[in-house]
């Protein structure tokens, strides 16, 4: 019956993992699908700025309707869940002396065959986390998924 | 100087994200690199079995040397960090009535240009998490990276 | 514009806080509102049983449609959030040698003036938490709210 | 023997849940009991200010004796436990781009029949949590209880 | 005024850190002080057994009065805080495939000059944590302190 | 085979627990061993400053090589683990209105008999945690251990 046959999470992850020569194909693939999405970059020692950058991009690109709290609520929790993967333990950056440089994607659509399942949202993050010194960093990723 | 130019984390993620028709290419790509790796599947309501399945695969495929605690210690923490991304908040499964079905990869190698940085290990997870009822689930992912 | 004028959370809390002589009034008040709800009791050292009892009651009383994952997903996260309030720190019971005796309510409805905000769900918990010895316990509460 | 017959936690919750026309009755009820209490409001994106507002009110209203560390210690942990219920997962506000508007009560007294159980303290919180934009918020609650 | 001049925490730590030839001196030192204490060993993959072993020892040695919930409550939270130091992140053992072998001490007394500060309790833990395979382990410690 | 016979963790703890008349002996004992170490003090409401003070001391005293990310990575995670013991629940200070005054030690060496286990690092913390008011504080400790 219900099946994740369109992989909204995988779609979101592939957008942030794509190299500069793969991104065009990844974006074309998204445009051919029923999903809508946005893609961006953010880097900061302040978690607040990371949350804010993703929210702003999702609003500006009309991936979510900022007039509706239910949509903002769905997005917010998907962002926080993705940040759990990025921060792995304590959802904080500067407070524990670390910084991130991330690519993010927000994908919205109907990933289940059953139409009644409605729309869902996926937030994917990929980039680096480390000390606030160039090179002292390793890769990190996170994925948050929510019904909308 | 130091740069994540070989992307040990991205390599690990691409292995678990590959479809059945992409996996051969992904594995060939790995074999051409200096990285060693293993790939597997695990599904359970018991977190303990997930940890154990990954550890066993890494040992059997000689990705890590089980005789050395330092290698087991590096792998263990990379697994736990990847599970933070999968569980997003509370590192538990059955206790909070949920189950996972995951593909995992463990990749080991030298991701930094500077040889002195030595070996690192990446654990990537991708699959589904949800209620212990077929279909009541969504995608989830996690990545843990550690020096070895 | 949007305003929590119907207090879905407060409604849920008042149901679990009502004494035996207040419960009739509280239930009448609910029946006069647009909210649908269910009310129950659960007690266990196993968190899994607490989650399960609430899910089962919500399904049996048709507060949520168990055929739809989006509804189960909304309920599940509302339950977990309510349990954060009950457990205050580590979402576990028997593992850290404690047990709960709880009244729970699940309330579903439209708490915002703006119709487009749609339906939301609130899970309220109230009871005791303590050592698995009669009397060695104090009160505890929790509230989780989610869009549905 | 021991029994939570006076419900210090429920008393604290009812104070913060009372509407403007119920508060007088709730306060009268408290004055007739052996409990002492204080009641206040606080709103902030900074968790520090929330903790501080509650501590200050409890000191000014002589609910606790600020000269005694043991009393401050009991209050502090009760506040933190109540905040776990409010924040549900990560005890932070502005860092994860959210703000609260809360009513709080601090109640002190002897909730157990056995006199030797001595005094206990309850901190209850009720209000809204959400984005720092009017209306993008839902209800939240928390209760912390400690021996004093 | 108030000062931690008797170091209840340090006293508890020194008891668990003492080698076999230092333990006699450490115990003599304790007996000369106003503190009462108990000392024991516990090892398990089940957190529940660790909590239980410490509680049982504290009761049997009359460090706390098991008839009084306020004393059990003070001890319980001190144990949990000590376990946060031992587990560093997720308060779980077997669920994440690890085991502990610990020495524990529970010390009770008046650590502050001001008599009104009354009695406090300290729980110290020291030992090893690691995989359930001999030798794959490293040291770990934890300290919890509470008013009683 | 492998055995924690040199106690890198206990060595680190004894350095921070030593009184002014014991410190000389403790340091002499360290100098006679194969371990290298540094010792310092830090106090702050900002966690960032605590992390930074320990990192700076370890670099200046050549306990770790700041040019190598793998060493900084090992140290960083050992510091965070030690801070879990100090903060017991939420790794934050000023945000939850508390401050610390800590002695810290960083010890590096080969604690296992098997030479192949290589070098490990231990970070020990001991001091006080409490309200930002003199005297309203109790003792706290933490220990983090990592392979390097």
Overview in brief:
The structure is a homohexamer of 148-residue chains. The first copy, chain A, is of the alpha+beta class and 148 residues long. Chain A has 4 helices and 4 strands; from the N terminus they run H-H-E-H-H-E-E-E.
Task: Describe the model.
The structure is a homohexamer of 148-residue chains. In chain A, 36% of the residues lie in helices and 28% in strands. Chain A is of the alpha+beta class and 148 residues long. Chain A has one domain (8-147): 3-Layer(aba) Sandwich (Hut operon positive regulatory protein HutP), CATH 3.40.1510.10. A four-stranded antiparallel sheet of chain A has the order 1-2-3-4, sandwiched between helices. In chain A, strand 3 and strand 4 form a beta hairpin. Mean pLDDT of chain A is 94; it is low at 1-5. Chains in contact: A-B, A-C, A-D, A-F, B-C, B-E, B-F, C-D, C-E, D-E, D-F, E-F. The interface between A and B is medium-sized, with 34 and 34 residues. Chains A, B, C, D, E, F: This is Hut operon positive regulatory protein. Chains A, B, C, D, E, F: One of its GO terms (molecular function) is RNA binding. Chains A, B, C, D, E, F: One of its GO terms (biological process) is L-histidine metabolic process. Chains A, B, C, D, E, F: Belongs to the HutP family.
Strand-helix topology:
The structure is a homohexamer of 148-residue chains.
Chain A: H1 8-17, H2 23-32, E1 36-44, H3 47-60, H4 69-87, E2 99-109, E3 120-130, E4 137-147
Antiparallel strand pairs in A: 1-2, 2-3, 3-4
Family (chains A, B, C, D, E, F): Belongs to the HutP family.
Pfam families (chains A, B, C, D, E, F): HutP (PF09021)
Function (chains A, B, C, D, E, F): Antiterminator that binds to cis-acting regulatory sequences on the mRNA in the presence of histidine, thereby suppressing transcription termination and activating the hut operon for histidine utilization.
């Amino acid at each position: 019956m219900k099946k994740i046959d369109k992989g909204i999470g995988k779609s979101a992850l592939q957008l942030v993992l794509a190299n500069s020569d793969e991104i065009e194909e990844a974006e074309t693939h998204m445009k051919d699908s029923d999903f809508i999405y946005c893609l961006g970059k953010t880097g900061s020692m302040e978690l607040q700025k990371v949350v804010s950058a993703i929210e702003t991009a999702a609003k500006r690109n009309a991936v979510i309707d900022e007039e509706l709290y239910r949509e903002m609520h769905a997005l917010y929790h998907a962002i926080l869940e993705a940040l759990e993967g990025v921060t792995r333990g304590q959802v904080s950056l500067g407070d524990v002396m670390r910084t991130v440089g991330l690519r993010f994607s927000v994908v919205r659509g109907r990933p289940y065959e059953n139409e009644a399942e409605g729309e869902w949202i996926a937030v994917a993050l990929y980039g680096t986390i480390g000390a606030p010194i160039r090179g002292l960093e390793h890769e990190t990723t996170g994925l948050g998924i929510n019904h909308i």
